[in-house]
Structures are given as structure tokens and as C-alpha cells.
Amino acid sequence: MWRAAFTAATSLAKTKKESVVKILITGAAGFIGCHCAQRLASSGYEVIGVDNLNDYYDVRLKEARLALLSKLKGFRFFKLDLTDRAGMADLFQRENFDLVLHLGAQAGVRYSIENPFAYTDSNITGTLTVLEGCRRNAVKHLIYASSSSVYGANTKQPFSTDDRVDSPVSLYAATKKANELMCQSYAHLYGLPCTGLRFFTVYGPWGRPDMAYFKFAVAITKGKPIEVYNYGNMKRDFTYIDDIVDGIKSLVDGPLPPAGSHKVYNFGNNKPEKLTDLIEALEQSLERNAVRIFLPMQPGDVPETFADIDNSQRDLGFKPSTSLREGISRFSRWFREHIEKTGI
């Protein structure tokens, strides 16, 4: 409710009339980070991006995203690991950020089973480094990425931010819930305004190759079979990247939350779609048929996600409008233009 209650509050843009508002984006070479950096830098903000460019997936894709961002006048980039305490402390002190958009994290539910320490290093230690940088340098607002994975074994639908989220089914989910608790503690102890965003299956151009829709596209175009888990009985609240960025920009543009506040919002499409519908949309847009191999549910996965976005709509004006077929069509056009041509 803080947005409605503080509509008369001073916006971030108005606090610095004589200079450009400076924003740090962690994970700037990542999928959501790249899109946010592009939108915000193009909108007149000064954006500083950091990323460690790890090899969780093909680094060339991250470099290609950065190549696009490097053309923008309002963007600068530093290769830096969030766990580098000295490096991050120096960056915060030197740049004097107004706002931080913390999107850097080790992503992926299944990979957390194979490499758990990557998640405690990046998601726990890395987030703590960001929090320390914010509180020691008077950052006015920390916006950070959480995940729909925090809902874990919850069976009540749709998932609401009022629901308890103490039954994670993966280490990745546990680290994201830990991030929410860490931000709550810093909001309480140091008055740092924090806003967490639980993203629901974000997809689109320049997306992550480890996600199902991207893997399916690669396999379909190469004539290889796709692995369909839980025998196809899966639903996801697929959310197109532009709708996510619209919501984040609205939050950045809007009034500053009061000191000590901590709010968490769902950023989802509010419309679960069948996995089979996603596959059919890819088949149609790529003009090729998929060969399906049906498999049981994987460890750490859940059969359905469904976002209750009433609070997000009321407080932030978040209103996704891109249908799955339109979003997949846009992704497929990009995929053919970039991935098939470059081989990345």
C-alpha cells in the first residue's frame, strides 16, 4: 500500500533536479538485467552495470547483451563479482548510487542440486555485500529479485504474497527466501527501503538458454527430441520480459518508499498456461514439429505456478498484457535472427 499512501511523496527523479539519477544494476549481463539496463539508460537514468560473467551458460550470449548496452550513452559496465567485498565496497563509495536494482544471482532450480555452493556464494554472500553497500552509502531504495520458487510445496492457488513460504523444494528457493529475510532485517535495522519482486517464469528475446522454452527452441530447430517433464502435466505463469521491465520501470519512476519499509510483490502474468501450449506455440512460430520424450517430474520442480498480482496492480500499476503466443512469436523471431545465425 505504500505507493497509494505516499503518492504525494517525492519521487527519485525529483530528488536530484540538477543531476541524473544513478542506478546500479547487478547481473546486468543477464537476461532481465540487460533489458532493464537498456530501458532505464534509454530513459535518461545513469546506469552502472556489474556482472561476473560466469560460465553457467555460454558467456558469448552475455557478451552479446553487453555489446548492445555499450552503445547506450547512459550505461557503464564493470566486471565484478558480488562476493568481492573490497571491490563492491569501493564501487558503492565511488559511485554514490541513488538506487540499486539487485538482479545478480545464481539462477536455476536444477543446477542448485548439482552445485549448491554456487548458490550460497552468489545469492547469500553476494546479496549481503549489496545490502552492506546500500546501508553504508545511503542508497535511497533497494529493489531486488526474488522468485516464484519461494512458494515451494504450497498447494493453494493462486500464490499470494500473504501465503507462508516456509516449505522450499530446492536450495535455490531457500536462498531466495533467505534474501527476503535479509532485506527485511536491513530495512528494520538501518531504515533501508527494500522492495522484493517474485518473478514468475520470465521469457523472451535474449533469454536464458537453461530455461525450457529456450531449450525446446534449440532442439526443435535441430530436429532433436525435447524432454517433457511430469508427462506434460505442467502449468507455468509465463511472463513476458517487456511486461516485467514495464513493472520495474514504474517502480523506479515512482515515489520513494518510506524509510524502513519492506514490501514483496508477485510479478507474474496471472494466467497459468499448459506446458503443451508453450510447445505448440513454439512449433507454430518456428514452423517445425517437436518430437516429445515424456519423463517424470524432476527433483525440486513443482507442477504449477500461478501469481496473485492484486497487490502489484494496486500499488505499482503492474499489468502484464502480452499473450503467450505473441511473446513466443517475438522470442522465435529473435531466436532465428540471432541464435541460428550466430550459433551461440
Report on this structure:
This protein is α/β, with parallel strands linked by helices and 344 residues long. The protein has a single domain, classed as NAD(P)-binding Rossmann-like Domain (Rossmann fold). Helix content is 43%, strand content 15%. It is built from 13 helices and 13 strands. The protein has helices at residues 2-5, 12-15, 31-42, 59-69, 85-95, 111-114, 116-136, 171-190, 212-222, 241-253, 275-286, 310-316, 324-342, and strands spanning 22-26, 46-51, 75-79, 99-102, 141-147, 194-199, 202-203, 226-228, 235-236, 239-240, 262-267, 273-274, 292-294. The strands form four sheets. A seven-stranded parallel sheet has the order 3-2-1-4-5-6-11, with helices on both faces. Strands 7-10 form a two-stranded parallel sheet. Helix 3 (31-42) links the parallel strand 1 and strand 2 (46-51). Mean pLDDT is 93; it is low at 1-10 and 13-18.
Strand content: 15-25%
User: Do you know the CATH topology?
Assistant: Rossmann fold
Quick one: CATH class? Alpha Beta
How many beta-strand runs? Answer: 13
* Model regions low in confidence, pLDDT < 50 over at least 5 residues: 1-10, 13-18
Oligomeric state of this protein:
single chain
The side-by-side strand order for the widest beta sheet comes to 3-2-1-4-5-6-11
Q: In this structure, how is the largest beta sheet organized?
A: 7 strands, parallel
- Per DSSP, the total helix count is 13
How many structural domains does the protein architecture include?
1
CATH architecture: 3-Layer(aba) Sandwich
Radius of gyration: 19 Å
Structural class: alpha/beta
Say which CATH homologous superfamily is assigned.
NAD(P)-binding Rossmann-like Domain
Keywords: NAD
Pfam families: Epimerase
Protein name: UDP-glucuronate 4-epimerase
InterPro entries: Epimerase_deHydtase (IPR001509), NAD(P)-bd_dom_sf (IPR036291)
